[in-house]
């Protein structure tokens, strides 16, 4: 059986193997169709001999989704794509708890290497933020019970992070009772397809292979490699030598080659030599070379891999190079110089390559915060730190440092560089001295002669003679892990001709600071607080914004509340509690001292709770005691005010009323502590109290043998019932986060004023006297004791 036949036979076996794991339900045919499509893609694009395709279902998770307020509301998860992965399929299944729940769009952000940087509603960033991402994707799905697939062909090797949330818009806000308690779930299933058996190219050696359709090779690039090339030195078709060789060469770092612009392609049929050369390659990862046959029949090819390596001459006195499985390692014998003075020399003849100085920064961690680290030069001999480098004309000065995936990706990388000439140095007016600085992750920004920097990473190009220039600062939110390089180059331009010319001042000192810190160096633009959360064992910092500020550092004020509006909201929420004063005075006048005390405590704690409940950075915030005790007292006393009012209205006499009041206080104190924000905690005591009132009135009507209360008394209750009903309706159906200040203030007013109409007009003094035989019931010999009411109004009767 030929190798292609073996490959397709193996694919069929693979299909049968996966098919056995498909659930036997209504989705079986759909899953079979998806698997067939996947295998068709793989067999059409990756059919080569001696390389096997395997399937690994490596990840499954189900998470609950929350509405977006800040980054802390995200549900985040990650998945690792190892080397040699040809395809990763993300399958998302979003669902909702009830059909009555709206179909809110589910947003999913994928990013390579670090946490996704979500810009909800295109939040603005200040000019010093660099939003750099190697690769990211944004998906929108609907929770309608269908499965959505997203495929990553030839993904970058490493960890991919995802964040999911649901939309929150003002039009979708609902009240506490109209909310159907909607829950949204997201099921995530990740399937990856790695390749096995890819041969490893040996350095500086000839490697032979038989090319039918496609051949894959790989090799590992260490951090000291700044250029490599792969050449087809011999190409034969049977016994015939072919020149040029009818093949295409594809090269890509950290991922298998694909059809994107990230893959470097050489068409050997159109050139004199069949050679692919990559300058400034990605370091610390596997690189891949793909050879594609452009003619019918097999080709025998001979390949040779070369690379340019700069070794430190000042750091090591002697070293031994090992090549094992294509990986270069060094064995350091003796360290003889300062770590900061690292100068590199090329391997081979000295005239072939010109290598520049590369300085490595040491990490100094802070004991105050696990996310705060400083990068600086550290001398092994003097045990001192330095933050100065010399930038010399004609050379590119480079420093490097490492961002760790386990410590730094949830923080903000901050780079500050200040480079200017001293004022005593004279610069002729005919010459401009310019320093260009750029940053790059994963590869040295240098092509052998000058800076090689991506457009968005050229972070500074300034005239050093301009003393008003304060230098530059760049902030990288959620930086990707790996080696980062900062390169600086000094050049001089003739102001008349615009041509480059030698600089009169050949060297310039540049001071720098490199650090990682949470949020914006621990701050959030004075409009929020910096918080830290644990995501998959990694700390992630984010700003919790207030007063409707938004953005990564709360810098977006497009929807922010103005200070006069904040003052108005605070006054509404606090001063509306003064409407309890009439109820307090009336209860005291009618000798309801316990009830008056409860109303006063409710007014007091509600006032100061809402004064403390303002945004943390509001100018009008006042907390007489910590926030949580104030919140607890406000919630408890609000419910207790309803309870004692309904017990008074029921007419239950002492000591039973005191017993019910204390029983209610104990039970409510426990329930409020357990379920503080549950609206049922408010409704159950009110409903129970109304039931006690109705039962008491029924018993009273039976004993009096007439309806109680009388119609004219009911007319007095109606305003109170209406106000209480309006207040409860506002609280339960209309109150949302957007209109909280207005609706909650109206709730205060309605509830406080309604108490006036519920308190009985006066207390009833009773005395017990025996009645005549005419009032004896059932022929009893004992006189019946009745209450002698000091009022002629039967509505004032209290049992």
Word description of this protein:
This protein is of the alpha+beta class. The chain folds into seven domains: 1-45; 47-169 and 176-193, Jelly Rolls, CATH 2.60.120; 206-327, Sandwich (Jelly Rolls); 356-517, Jelly Rolls (Sandwich), CATH 2.60.120; 529-559, no CATH class; 563-758, Rhopdopsin 7-helix transmembrane proteins (Up-down Bundle); 764-799, no CATH class. It is 24% helix and 33% strand. The strands form nine sheets. Strands 23, 24, 25, 26, 28, 31 and 33 form a seven-stranded antiparallel beta sheet that branches. Strands 10, 12, 13, 16, 18 and 21 form a six-stranded antiparallel beta sheet that branches. Strand 34 and strand 35 form a beta hairpin. Helix 4 packs parallel to helix 10. The longest helix is centred in the C-terminal third of the chain and has 25 residues, at 680-704. The termini are far apart. Residues 1-20 form the signal peptide. Disulfide bonds join 545-554. Residues 515-555 form the EGF-like domain. It comes from Capitella teleta. This is EGF-like domain-containing protein.
Residue-averaged pLDDT, rounded? 76
The CATH class name of the largest domain reads Mainly Alpha
Radius of gyration: 39 Å
Q: How far apart are the termini?
A: 101 Å
Strand tally: 37
Proper CATH architecture of the largest domain: Up-down Bundle
Bin the strand percentage. Answer: 25-35%
Number of domains: 7
Largest sheet, described in full?
A: 7 strands, antiparallel
CATH topology of the largest domain: Rhopdopsin 7-helix transmembrane proteins
Number of helices: 10
Low-confidence segments, given as residue ranges, are 1-33, 39-44, 46-50, 313-353, 763-799
Shape from CA axes?
elongated
Q: Percentage of helical residues?
A: 10-25%
Structural class by sheet pairing and helices: alpha+beta
